[in-house]
Amino acid sequence: MMNNRTRFLFLFGVLLMLSTPRLALTQVQAAPWLTDTERTKFENLRIVGSEALFNLDYETARKNFKEMAVAFPNYPAGPQFLADTLWAETLYQTRRLQSSLYGSDDTFYSTSDDKADPRIVDQFRTLTRQARLLTEARLKQFPKDPEALYFMGAIEGLKASFEEAVERRHFAALKDGSDAVDKH
Predict the structure, then answer these.
(1) What is the Cα–Cα distance from 179 to 7, expressed in whole angstroms?
(2) What is the pLDDT of residues 20-47, one digit of tens each?
(3) What's the pTM value of the predicted model, to 2 decimals?
(4) How many Å apart are CA 134 and CA 47, to the nearest integer?
(5) Quick check: 152 and 132 in contact, CB under 8 A?
(6) How many CA atoms lie within 13 A of 91 on its CB side?
(7) Going by CATH, does the domain composed of 34-96+109-183 fall within 1.25.40?
(8) DSSP 8-state assignment for residue 34
(9) How far is residue 83's CA from residue 155's CA, in Å, rounded to a whole number?
């Protein structure tokens, strides 16, 4: 009886020693992207910028999100929120926020001559690319970081929304929308 118990304890100890480093590696926690002080400043800028955006005050929103991007150059929220603002402002200026566009008469999907402004498209892609690169850099350090994974999905979703509503590139929007779901 003691022999079996000793053997069991020995094998259990060996198994525990072999699995402990692997467990420790898989449970590495990502260091916070922002400190508590930085997070407070970030949240203030986010709230003021978002309220301005919801009130169609694009200039104030842009000002706050630019300040965010400068204050936190390694954090993707600044460029992502700037891209959000550009998308919302473009929809507003082109009257694509009208609910009647999305009815049953297919006017939204019809081919029309109103092409997206190439400068707006380029600016949007630059901002989303910048946010994606910052997020990918974080994921190289911490592949399972929930905040970074959230940003990847949010960026892909934003790209899909822009491609569909502004550029009317339906298949590109479908692909990026699918990628957004996969990343969330």
Answers:
(1) 50
(2) 444 344 445 678 899 999 999 999 999 9
(3) 0.75
(4) 22
(5) yes
(6) 20
(7) yes
(8) S
(9) 9
